Amino acid sequence: MTKWIVSILSTVLIWGAGIAGVAFIHASSGDQLKLADTIAPGAAAQAEPAAGKAGDLKSIINVSQSKVFCIQTPGGLLGSGFLYNDKGDIITNSHVVAGESIVKVIASDSNEYTGEVIGKGDSMDVAVVRVEELKGKHPLSIETGRKAEIGDSVVALGSPLGLQNTATVGTISGVNRTLEIEGYSYKNVYQIAASIAPGNSGGPLISQKTGKVIGINSAGADEGNIGFSIPMDEVMKQVKEWSEKAF
Asked: Given a cut of 70, is residue 124 above it in pLDDT?
């Protein structure tokens, strides 16, 4: 099993300035934090109004799962991703597809496709994979312009340990976290009380209130149900640029 294990941050410094506060997490050698990306096995689209009926957890999961994919590299490493436009473009983490230009994309119905990596961040842990056969398909709805708050209910979808159609329910337990993991910089990320296991990285974090994607699941702690998700506001400009240039 291949996992990236890095030192989790043991000290959280909360700097208050007026009403606003920003929490910073600094690396230490205490607990363990991992990029939950991989294990080794043997113009934006007109999206649907929401991923299922807003507020109805079962409906959100059922509708969203068909737009969430397992991504497998030629070396057999696994991650997750989700369809974000009608060009067949899938958002995932950069560390999921690091060093690769072509990957296998596996749908929830077990259909397999060939995906081309059309954009990949160096310090920002986000990437885009294009699958020609998925052009014209309805993507997941993306929520931008509103930050999630502590206590918001969320569901993380992906393929932990390669097990597709997996949903993990939790809440936003922290905001504005800043992390440095294996050369990637995570700024203003959400801390979530939901487990992010190997194979889950790149999957969507969905608001239970709206049924829309609010983040990209990227890292998780070895101990306890703690995960970290990159807000969509932080990556959408770059993601759209990659998609437009790929034409």
From this structure: yes
Residues of the chain with pLDDT > 70: what percent?
A: 77
Active site residue 125: yes
Contact 208, 60 (CB under 8 A): yes
Q: Where are the domains of the chain?
A: 67-138+237-245
Of 37, 95, 141, 229, which is the active-site residue? 95
Cα separation, 227 vs 105, in Å, equals 24
| Segment 79-88, tens digit of pLDDT | 999 999 999 9
Q: Pick the catalytic residue: 37, 89, 125, 152?
A: 125
In the residue annotation, 26 being an active-site residue is answered as: no
Is 56 catalytic? The answer is: no
Q: Which of 64, 94, 201, 243 is catalytic?
A: 201
Q: Per residue, what are the HEC states of 8-60?
A: EEEEEEEEEECCEEEEEEEEEEEEEEEECCCCCCCCCCCCCCCCCCCCCHHHH
CATH H superfamily, domain 67-138+237-245: Trypsin-like serine proteases (2.40.10.10)
Residue 122's contacts (CB-CB under 8 Å, 6 or more residues apart) are 94
